[in-house]
Amino acid sequence: MNKLIVKYLIIAGLLITGNAQAQTERWTLQQCIDYAIRHNIEVKQSQNRIEKLKVEKSTLKSSFLPELNAGTSQKFDFGRSLNRSNTYEDSNTRSTSFSVSAEVPLFTGFRRSASISRNKFDLMAARADKELIENNLSLNVTSCYFQILLNKEIHKIALEQIRLTREQEDRTLLLIENGKAPQSQLYDVKAQLADDELTATEAKNSLRLSLLDLLQLMELQTHEDFDVDSLDENSFRIDTIMPQAIYADALNCMPQIKQAYYSLQSSSKAIKVAKSGYYPTLSLGAGASTGYYHSGNSINPSFNQQLQNNMQKSVYLTLSIPIFDRFSTRNEVRSARIEESNARLSLENEKKSLYKDIEKAYTDAVNALEKYESTAKAVAANEEAHRYALEKYAAGKSAVYEYNEIKMKLADALSKQSQAKYAYLLKERVLSFYACKPIGEPGSQGQERQFPR
Q1: Backbone phi, then psi, for 234, in 5-degree steps?
Q2: Total Cβ atoms within 10 A of residue 69
Q3: Going edge to edge, which strands form the sheet with 93-107?
């Protein structure tokens, strides 16, 4: 009995340990991106478009095969009808016919080969479009991820303010007991504590909303155990490569450029497809037919004998020369050329938009770094001012509002420093992403800097 109890206790302990580990599991940025891509509806729809183009590709390749048809018919005539001697008589007759035919197009004005080439570029453009959707989703997930980390730090700063205010409350009680401060100061401190708790509550709510944004973006059902992993913040890097160099790398890997380029190539093939209407078409065909005829007023040969005697075979060529199609082909060619011009402009526009995005991300990163360095100095100065103000307040040489003002300045400086830090880290990831590196991994270029702890 004791052994059984011990066994149950061990199993229960393992289950509790497993649940505790599950509750403390944190998602990395790459895990969040991978999960979001696997469950995103737009990504699945883009994959369906790719599969549809693959089916179309198979159909186009099959157009080179001959078309084979077989047919049969059964006819009954009553009363006066045409007999086998090609004269009319009053007789009930019935006839059966069988036929088989095959036809293969020999020349269609290069339409089939041009259509296959167009489909190839459409398929590559669809794959690039799917990659573009995944990239945009990755950027959005990364932005939400860093917002969560920022809100965590802001919440931590708010909790630290509560701790400082509670310590201030204890000091105020000592000052009042020693007669160095009036009772009204205690009320001021309690009011400040209430404000700090409200700030912490608002910061916690902002953190919850940012977690909810990430969960919805990942198509993950909301649950209390979800949390994100912290980043390696011991160091960060300032990218020394200029936007022009990043842009040169981005032209070779960004899917929006590939998608626009493949769409341009598809538009060029569409012109060849339209021009095929100017060419004649040539087809080769062959067929065989036979039949059975039965008349009620005459002696009819047997079924098998008639099938052999009535056999007819043929081989034929069909040439179709377009003469006038009411300018339909001409207008199709003109429309295809306009589409090609638009595709070319779209490619140029994508290149310009990409460079603008890189340039803005680079400028934002530089600004965030400069702001971080400025806020680091402000934090150091405010920490020293706070230390001095705390000593004065503990000695009863300053009022509550003076200490609270310096404490709030320190909290504001810490908040601005966190905002600048995560703004830089986000833009650094974006720049590395444009330089053809996975966004889920930190950048690896530039001069390493240290974050003060």
Answers
A1: -70, -25
A2: 10
A3: 67-77, 93-107, 281-295, 312-320
- Amino acid in position 244: Q
CATH superfamily of 29-65+131-278+342-450: Outer membrane efflux proteins (OEP) (1.20.1600.10)
The residue ranges of every structural domain in the chain are 29-65+131-278+342-450
3-state secondary structure of 321: coil
Say if CB 185 and CB 401 are below 8 A apart.
no
Q: Please, is 249 exposed, middle or buried when counting C-beta atoms within 10 Å of its C-beta (0-12, 13-18, 19+)?
A: middle
**Average pLDDT, consecutive stretches of 10 residues, N- to C-terminus, the chain (453 residues):** 42 44 71 94 96 96 93 83 69 86 93 96 97 96 95 95 92 86 88 94 95 92 80 55 89 95 97 95 94 76 84 93 94 97 97 95 92 93 91 82 90 94 92 87 45 38
Tell me the three state secondary structure of residue 27: strand
Compute the radius of gyration of the chain from its Cα atoms. 40
Task: Catalogue the E-assigned strands of 270-393.
Answer: 281-295, 312-320
The span from the CA of 120 to the CA of 262, in Å, is: 9
Position 13 scores a pLDDT of 46
User: pTM score, two decimals?
Assistant: 0.83
For 289, the 3-state DSSP assignment is strand
